Amino acid sequence: MLGCFLLGQAAFAGLALAQEDPLASWNEGPAKSAILEFVAETTDPDSQGYVAPDERIAVFDNDGTLWSEKPLYFQVLFAIERLQEMAGDHPERTETQPFKAALKRDWEAVAASGGKGLMKLLAATQTGMSDRTFTAEVQDWLDTARHPRFDRPFTELVFQPMLDVLEYLRANGFRTWIVSGGGIDFMRAWTEEAYGVPPEQVIGTQVDLDYVSDTKAPAFERKSGTFFFTDGANKPIGIQRHVGRRPVIAFGNSDGDLEMLEWTTTGEGPRLGVLIHHTDAEREWAYDRESDIGRLDKGLAEGPDRGWIIVDMADDWAQVYPWQSAP
């Protein structure tokens, strides 16, 4: 909604500062400088590294890159809540993993079940319904659910520094895409409001669909089989299928993002690859090589040699969440 706002002197000063520093939530340092310099180089028509507007594609992982992913991926926490609601109809699940651990809210055991276990949870709780029903349930959950550590809505667990990056890139003619292992329909229910990324620029894991013909209200029925799991090598495949252009910027946070960064940064011309390293146990979490969620091992070992920027969350981010104290 457009409107007129009367700004006090302090608010006006804050707005002016934000305009002078598009990455105000970042601390000064090599990571911030690399992003600013890359955008300046690629958008200056007189620069040798100029990138035409049609080629300005930036891709972002979601979980752990744009918002937090602990104690479990938020879509899995959504699945666990649905599992609790469905428990009476499926008593057999109380003795079957990963359902047993999920019903007991044993986060570590659920995470330890790995990708196969998480996909079982998602298949059992997020299929067998129409696309409209699923979207409505996601939106209802996001409106009411609270994060177990911070007691805030999950959409408040987005990273302010990454919101700044998204806005800065779009202001300079870049199109921003999400490429995530999370469900494409789960994310499309809220990414435009949270990040300014519209549904058609979201790539994620897909389930099989049936088209249900109806002259008044046709719909898509979500089936139990996974059609495409967007992780690892499937991330650049998803980009090729949906975008049709090689990105020039890629942000991730785990080894599941390595192929996406590799595909992006091995192209011709200027390229930028960035990995978010979770090092801030006080404001968020600290984890990397040993984590069951968002493991970052090869990226730490190989990233610097590949020219990728490793963002140290504790050192490089002056602010983590929008509701924390601004710098």
Tell me the name of the CATH homologous superfamily of the largest domain.
HAD superfamily/HAD-like
Overall pLDDT confidence: 90
Low-pLDDT stretches are: 1-18
Work out the number of β strands: 8
Give the fraction of residues assigned to helices: 25-40%
N-to-C terminal Cα separation, in Å?
28 Å
CATH architecture of the largest domain: 3-Layer(aba) Sandwich
Strand residues, percent? 15-25%
CATH class of the largest domain: Alpha Beta
Give a quick account of the main beta sheet: strands, pairing sense, barrel closure: 8 strands, mixed
Instruction: Supply the number of helical segments.
Output: 14
Structural category:
alpha/beta
What value does the Rg take, in angstroms?
20 Å
How many domains? The number is 2
CATH topology of the largest domain: Rossmann fold
Can you tell me the overall shape? globular
Describe the overall structure.
By secondary structure, this protein is α/β, with parallel strands linked by helices. It has two domains: 26-71 and 153-316, HAD superfamily/HAD-like (Rossmann fold); 74-144, no CATH class. Helix content is 38%, strand content 15%. It is built from 14 helices and eight strands. It has helices spanning 9-20, 30-43, 74-86, 99-103, 107-112, 114-125, 131-144, 160-171, 184-188, 191-195, 234-242, 258-265, 298-302, 313-316; strands at residues 57-60, 129-130, 175-183, 202-212, 219-228, 249-252, 272-277, 309-312. Strands 2-5-4-3-1-6-7-8 form an eight-stranded mixed β-sheet, with helices on both faces. Strand 7, helix 13 and strand 8 (309-312) form a beta-alpha-beta unit. Helix 3 packs across helix 6 (114-125).
